[in-house]
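Researcher: For the annotation table, I need structure tokens for VIT domain-containing protein. Please keep the output clean. Sequence:
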Amino acid sequence: MQFGHLASKISLPCVAMLLLSIIRPCCALADVIDDFETARTSWVQMPNDASAIPLAHQRQVGDSHMGASSELIRLQCGNGTHAYYGHAVPPARVVTELKYSVWIKSDRQGIQAAARVVFPRAIDPQTGQPRVTLVFGDRYGEPNRWSAVGIRNIDELVRQQVAALRSEHGSQFDAREAYVDYVVLNLYTKPGPIQVQIDNLEGEGILNVGQTATVTQRPVTQGGVRGMPGTTGVNVQLGPQRSDSTTNGQVIEVNDHPEVPRIIDYNGEPLGLLRQLGFTAIRTSQAPSPRLQQELLRYNMWSVSSPPEERSPADQAAVLAWELPVTSGEDGFSDFAIRASDLRLLDGAKPRPILAITQNRTRDFSQHSDVIATRRTTLGTSQSLRDYAKWMQSWSLFASPNAIRWAVIPTQFSPNTQRQVSLLAQQSSVPMGFQPVQLEKATFLAVANGVRGVLFESNQPLNADRPVDAARGLALELINRRLNLIEPWVAAGRRMEGASCSDPNVHVSLMATDTAILLIAVRTAPNDHLVIDPVPERKKVTVSVRGVPMAAEARLIGDSGIHWVEQSRGLGDMQIHLDRTEHVSLVVLTQDQRVIRDLYRRSERNRVNLVKLRIDIAQHEFRLAEHVRNALESPTQSPAISRGISQAWAEVREAERLYEAENLQEAYRFAMQAENKVAQVQKMQWQQWAALYQYPLTNPTLISYDVIPFASRLQGNLQYLRPGGNLLPGGAMEDPTFLLSSGWVQVQTPQPGFEAEVEFTPQMPHGGNYAVAMRVKPDAQGLYARPEEAPIAIRSAPVRVEHDRLVLIRGWIRIPQKLSDESGGVLIYDSLGGRELGLHLKEAEEWTEFTLIRATGENDTMQLTFELADTGQVFLDDVTVHMYEAARGPEIAPGLETSSDRNLFQTIQP
């Protein structure tokens, strides 16, 4: 081995390295070893056989890959095979996850990366030093262009080398506890001069040798578990036997490192797939089995789980947080508090955080848990994303200031919603899903309002063989990668005020660390929660931020890289002009070069994948729009729809071509143009049918773009049906005695600070002599701005409905004064469709009719519920329930727009 006696010529690492203060076992994110921003050179010449003569070796400013400077080496080489230069790295165990990369730019191709491996148990008897070897990685390709070369699969390469080393040094050669101490470049390509610039040396999976305890009696397994690599049988404990997660103020730390947990409900998918999609944890209903624990540790993942019933919770190595169930009833809270106290005593010296997911009594539960979360479904409901943002902001007022807040983001429609849509569509199962941009907006609206982690709800595997699940995977990976770009602010930043926007449809918020401010801007439109509205083209949005240091500059954290953003200065503030067609814009304001360098590093790790994800999402949305167009094909189809789809296809193809040519910025631009063009088409197609209804949720087949063909079919069926007689007793609201005797009830949920009541009133009824009024008002103390949960509800008498029938629910409502956006106002829903398909109404100064169309399955009993979740009053009258019956001729269903000047197939030109 030509490198076998290198240890006798060069002492083991003598270059002082700035080690990271926190080393995480098997870390998936790169650690920066050298950013080459200082004046001192760090690469050292090692043995060569090519008579390599150094002509220049210095740090130079300008023409760097990242930051201000790089390291320049110029050599004159003769004949030979190698001219090694090495860079000392923190001694790191040879494990599966260990890899290194370095950026170089040279006038010659063929430079090869390598790593020097030290075997501390294999001592050379002649020198008394450990034996070493080299393992090789990538070669540099296109000259005069910055490119990363790396060395990966180091453990596999070392295992291959050990056989040769044992044949050379004897079978007693001991390869245990091997570690890497130098990254090496072979600068020899051919005789003659060569110049190379070097920048940004990074490593992943670095486990510092000095922090590793040797375990002499540890079984060798084939599982590849963290701490027991099956590939080499190394008997070394690579990290703590359990994930050391804790809370520090409002920050969750894993092994002393601030984390943003990205959690997915586990449905049996391969953990490697979930890790690839960017998830750091899974959620399980039970504590992980020993086998699942091993797999989690192998992929450097954790679980959020219920504590085990039979085993000690302290033995659960892979648990990030314990989720304790929240039950209703008088004893629900006291049971939770007792279980939380007992769990902390049983979980060892450093107990893991306790999570509570609750819809009510948030302050109480947050005082006995470390992490508090609540669930609010917005996508596919009658609540807009703008309302969701306001609700997320107000929800923080109910939680204890010491509790960490997580967001629960549903990634699929609820089973009840899917059942109702399937019944209306007359299909056993209807593939329906949220649009990727919808999930992205909902997540970043939550993050913008101060959550420290995201739990994505999922009831089906992400690797299911359905287009909707493939699109869901694309969306979640894109969200996770974008969250990784801004992790320092999400994990440990503080929310600050001082941002305003020229466009009321753009939600802006600020998060600050000590030296940088992150601006999150999310565009919202009235129906984004149902079908995404296209971003207005060439429309600039100006965001004003107060209190920005004069030396700070603004940079856009884009999918294709870090970009300069147009900015100007005013009196004490900065104006940022956003003209990109992005639904979610991330902008950093800072003068700290360390922050900027870290952003560039994060961007380099993610931007290729982010651009590819944008292209794949545009392709998916294009194919979906084409499918819907074919399903809706008719003489009334707008030419603008066909033209928009054709333009989108051309832009998707151009984005793919530019991506293959490694022009990421232009590829991203064309992908976004294609996505926006498809969004225009989708909105036109959806609007054709939504325009027929005052409230889109009247017809549940309008809650998702991909079920629009069923909305068309349902509307066609309704033209040959008419509502039969009223089946709901007491809905005229005329006789309180009859109302109560027929089964109508009021449900009170006492809320601290509020009083609620229901009464019959002769004040301006819609029909007859009386209406019913629901009122909520602050009590004498008036401690809260709004109730946390609806204090009052009315539930109708049960109605028996036949199976396989269409049902029409209708009634009249009056809301004298507008209810707040964040409260959801009054919610009207039925037991067939559930809460998600209910109508949230906030304003109706005059009597306004509401209608709901539902389908029945087997013989169902149906009830209506009216909930008031805000201070104010609501009047109800003339509520009826009808089953549709066959009609002799076409008749449009009541509640639909039927004016003669309305074109039912009106299209909107893009």
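Researcher: And a one-line annotation?
Model: The radius of gyration is 32 Å.
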